[in-house]
Amino acid sequence: MSSKTEQQRRRLGIATQVFIGLGLGILTGVFFGERVAFLQIGGDIFIALLQVTVIPYVVVALITSLGRLTFAEAKQLGLKAGSVLILLWIVGLGVVLATPLAFPSWPSASFFSVSQIQEPTAVDFLSLYIPSNIFAALSNAIVPAIVVFSILFGVALIGVKSKTRFVDLLTTVGDTLMTMTGFIGRLAPYGVFAITAAAAGTIDVADLARLQVYLVIYVAMALILSLWIIPGLIAALTPLRYGSVIRAFRGPLITAFATANVLIVLPVLAADAKRLIEETDERTSPQEESAIDILIPAAFPFPNLGLVLSLMFVLFGGWFVGASVSVSDYPLIAGAGLASLFGSTVLALPFLFDLLRLPADLFQVFITVDVIGARFGTLLAGMHIIAIALIGAYALEGALQVRIRRLLRFALVSVVLVLAALIGIRAFYTYVFVAPFTKDELLAGLFFQSEPQPHIVYRDQPPAPDPDTVSAPGTLARIQETGLLRSCYRRSDYPSAFFNRDRELVGFDIEMTHRLAHALDARIAFIPVDSVSGAEASLARGECDVFMSLMPIVPDMTLSFAMTVPVIESPLSVIVEDHRRRDFETWDAIKSAGAIRIATTNNAATPRLIRRMLPDAQALVLAESPALDELLSEDPTSVDAILMAAEEAAAWTIRYPRFNVTVPKPIRMIPFGYAVPHEGDPHLLNFINTWLINAQGYGTVDQLYRYWMLGELGSARPPRWSIARDLLGWID
Question: Which of 85, 95, 147 minimizes the C-alpha distance to 384?
Fold first, then answer.
């Protein structure tokens, strides 16, 4: 017996195993890098298993908790304990919505994303909260409607006389679900290892620096709520003292923190709550002890402050990817997020990411950092349940001590403490520790996706014209005869034509030119032009055969060029300074701004477009490509906005991250194509059009668009740093 007991003592607890899995996962990811990305499959399986019992347990727990009560008890709980619960939720949501104050002013920009032009799905609050078809709600995991149904069912069950067997049956089902959860929980060390290893092996080093911001904010807010605000609120509303509350529950709270499981300490919380009331109040009544026995288990199925605090990851996620959540979305986060938390963060966060059009992959990031944050969340959850039990018990007995002056002083100190912590975190990460911005290096490191054609690049001046070959616009016959395709390009035309860090001319248009030259079996001479008008002149003189630079296909352009069929469709956007992006969300808002200055390129289409759409605006035409660099380098800039295609605009904000891309609503899609001389060879135009149609059908255009315009690097991304590759040389 003694040896068996000694063996049990030596066995590692699940919490310790999870920490070991976390540590081994980080070490594995750092050591092997992207070679362990396949482990993400194991992490996805673990997350799916966690979701298996969530919705059934929510239904069973709510129905049984309410069904055991009488109508009188339910009424008292609804009015008294429910008020306490709502108060705690308001406090928690207030802290969550204030956390953006702590996000540092780090530069953030990214490649264009198609999610920016997808119309958001309208939120149907009626179907979200009203369970008109509970089976549809269950099959589609509409958690708010499921919660409403379960509460209605539980309240109705109170009045059923022969409910004992049914409640006992549901209790058995609930115990079974908890047992299933326990089985799945044993896989936690392996699931955490898989998730962490895959994340540590693939996540960008700069992203790791940003993730610590969330952890620091979460831990700081969890500790302030757990150790000051909630026990202080209990002391302000009841005869209990702040120090007594902290001392009475430190044992179970430490246990909950160590195991990351508040459920296992519920009986201990109830016993300690009764003991504290007895020690403080000599007139303790049986009703108070009974209230404790009802309130603690009844409070467990409802979202606790630890879960509420996790909603800050939605706000953090927006900042993390450079798409800050608008203040107008805060009511949606508070309402839909709180209701979804009845199904835990496993359901709530993916649901909110979808509603707010944030990347679904953010949930994998949350799972990784929540391994640490969950312990502080569990500590907060335990204190949340204690507050409901103690304040609710005194409220049911009519023994609350509401002292306005004391409450106001406590509220003022709490607000100052929270704001000081948030602003202090922001100041630290703004002035002391600043994560470097590296997206511009990523843009400069892009290279060709296929073997380029033989080519020569003229960087500054075009070659001296040959009178025998440039007396007229180029023809398809001449290109085939000489084996040379002469293509004009605009310098610094990100991401279509630019010089990368290896001083190679690359970009979407440049690689498209190489693909066209391959179809022609020709070499390429890239000839620089600084403007659209310069390209028109070069084409007319026969110095270039084609202008492979995406331009809007609109009637005005046909006066200067012969345009090809559309290559892509792009939304019209504006580049604005970050703090002004909300002023340019709609065309109506821009129009109502009056005489603002809008810069644009010197083609014939966009200045006329500005005059037609924004009659009061002043158009500033940029004569040459370098003028845009100069304009974005100004601080403050001399214009209010810069009008251009969204993909191009996103690339410029990567180079100048203090600016932001806004696609005003309603979205205006414009076709873009290439140009040949206005009076040029129709056979050349026909060849290019036919080639473009085939390139679109084969997926060539889409492949290059995703790489150059959307930044979907895939296998083209340089390998992430790892010990095995970069230090030991074990991996090529």
Answer: 85
